[in-house]
Structures are given as structure tokens and as C-alpha cells.
Design a protein that fits this description.
10 helices, about 210 residues
């Protein structure tokens, strides 16, 4: 029981335990981090796992030479992308079940039809934006799968969003993560990065909605 509790705490606060994990697990740390990044979205119900903070912390540690940035970038991009694909596939397989159960709250045929129209019109922007929004990024891929968003465009824009998210936070941590002000005001810095990252897309989406 204690082992399970320790593992739970490890993954739940993986970003905070990196200084302990790295000396003990060495290269396996990369695999553990990749699992956390995958699971945050790929398992749908684990959106509480650290994502932004883990990437930022790993970027900061790579600046000290503790971790290798060239190893992390492709590995964690792949983990994030596979998480998106996993969640999408779960939604895809849930679609027939939800269509038959007409009384399920939030998943009525009308809701599914509305979601389908949304992803037809704004889905590509939503898939990219979602990667920069904690918790929301755990459900947008699922909703895209449930609404049967076309798989080809989903894959392309999902890959773009995942690579932008992973590289953005890793590089932010690499260049700024060891500055005392940034370390002491991490959540404010993350919020600022998110707002700057998504502002152009939000302006475009708002303008398109106002034209209606």
C-alpha cells in the first residue's frame, strides 16, 4: 500500500521530485517524464498530472547540464502527440455508444452534432490552442474523437500544437528557469507565457465569431 501511495505522489508531483529522481533513476528519468506527459492527456482522466511545470523544470535542469535538451525535445514531443492520439481514439470508439444513449447529460445527439459543427469550423485552431490550456487539453482531443473530426487534419494540427507546447516550455525553462524571480513566481510566468502564446489565435477566433 505504501508503495502505491509513493508512486502516486511521485507522478502527481513529478516536477518537484526531479532532483531526487534523476540521481536515482538516471536515464530512466526521461522515460518516466515521457509517461507523465503522455498520461496527462492520453488517459483522459489524468489531467491533474504536471505538464507545463514539468517541461519548464526539465528545461531549467538541462541548462545546468543535469538533463539533455536534445534528448528531451523529440521524446517529449512524441509523448505529447501520442497522448493526443490516444485521447482522440478513445473518443472515436465512444461515439457509437454515446449516440445510442440519448439521455446522457452533455452527450445528447444535439450536443454531438454541435460539437461536430464546431470542429468542422474551428477544430484546427482549437486543437492547437488546447495544448496550452491545462485541463482543457485533456478533453479537446476526446471531444474531437467523439465528434469524428477528420483524422488527417487532426493529426497535422495536433502535431503542431504538441511540438509548439513542448519546445516552448522546455526552451523557456532552459533560458529563464534558473533566474530567481522566475523560480519564485513560476505560476505567474506560466500564465504570461500561455497568454502570449495563444493571443494571436484568440484574436483570429474572436474576429471570426464577430463576423457571424
Amino acid at each position: 500500500m505504501d508503495l502505491l501511495q509513493n508512486l502516486w505522489q511521485l507522478f502527481l508531483h513529478f516536477d518537484q521530485y526531479l532532483d531526487v529522481v534523476i540521481p536515482r533513476f538516471g536515464w530512466a528519468t526521461y522515460g518516466l517524464a515521457a509517461f507523465v506527459i503522455f498520461a496527462e492527456v492520453g488517459l483522459v482522466v489524468t489531467g491533474f498530472l504536471p505538464g507545463d511545470s514539468l517541461l519548464f523544470a526539465m528545461g531549467a535542469l538541462s541548462a545546468r547540464g543535469t538533463l539533455q535538451l536534445p534528448v528531451m525535445l523529440p521524446l517529449l514531443c512524441a509523448a505529447a502527440f501520442l497522448g493526443n492520439i490516444s485521447s482522440y481514439q478513445i473518443g472515436w470508439f465512444l461515439n457509437p455508444f454515446l449516440e445510442k444513449r440519448k439521455k446522457i447529460r452533455f452527450f445528447s445527439p444535439d450536443h454531438l452534432s454541435t460539437a461536430h459543427r464546431f470542429f468542422d469550423r474551428y477544430g484546427r485552431t482549437a486543437v492547437i490552442l488546447a495544448r496550452f490550456l491545462p485541463l482543457i487539453r485533456s478533453f479537446v482531443p476526446l471531444a474531437a474523437g467523439i465528434s469524428r473530426m477528420e483524422f488527417g487534419p487532426y493529426v497535422s494540427y495536433s502535431l503542431m500544437g504538441c511540438c509548439a507546447w513542448v519546445s516552448g516550455y522546455l526552451l523557456a525553462g532552459f533560458f529563464f528557469g534558473n533566474i530567481p524571480f522566475v523560480k519564485n513566481n513560476f505560476m505567474m510566468v506560466v500564465l504570461g507565457i500561455v497568454l502570449v502564446s495563444i493571443m494571436p489565435a484568440l484574436v483570429k477566433l474572436t474576429a471570426s465569431l464577430l463576423k457571424k
